[in-house]
TrEMBL record:
Coiled-coil region(s): none
Pfam families for this protein: TatA_B_E
Lineage of the species this protein comes from: Bacteria, Bacillati, Bacillota, Bacilli, Bacillales
Alphabetic keyword roster: Cell membrane, Membrane, Protein transport, Translocation, Transmembrane, Transmembrane helix, Transport
Gene Ontology annotations for the cellular component aspect, listed alphabetically: TAT protein transport complex
Compartments, record wording: Cell membrane
Biological function: Part of the twin-arginine translocation (Tat) system that transports large folded proteins containing a characteristic twin-arginine motif in their signal peptide across membranes. TatA could form the protein-conducting channel of the Tat system.
Description of how the protein assembles with itself and partners: Forms a complex with TatC.
Region (Disordered): 48-73
Protein name: Sec-independent protein translocase protein TatA
Entry membrane topology: Single-pass membrane protein
Length: 73
């Protein structure tokens, strides 16, 4: 979707944003958007990594349980 904008489209969006928010608010909005995006990526990575860790923990637990059944512990 965003790949179809092109340079003229980006310039138009920036000019409209400059008119609506003014030059003093644009850096604040950019920082807020950047930090929000950073938090979103971190949360997404945590969910993915946490899910992988849970699967690994479940596999380890199953292996331990199988060993206990074989040894009779």
């Amino acid at each position: 979707m965003l790949s179809n904008i092109g340079i003229p489209g980006l310039i138009l969006v920036l000019v409209i944003a400059l008119i609506i928010f003014g030059p003093s608010k644009l850096p604040e909005i950019g920082r807020a958007f950047g930090s929000t995006l950073k938090e979103f990526k971190k949360a997404t990575n945590d969910l993915v990594n946490g899910d992988e860790q849970n699967k690994t923990s479940e596999r380890n637990l199953q292996a331990v349980e199988k060993n206990e059944e074989k040894t009779g512990s």
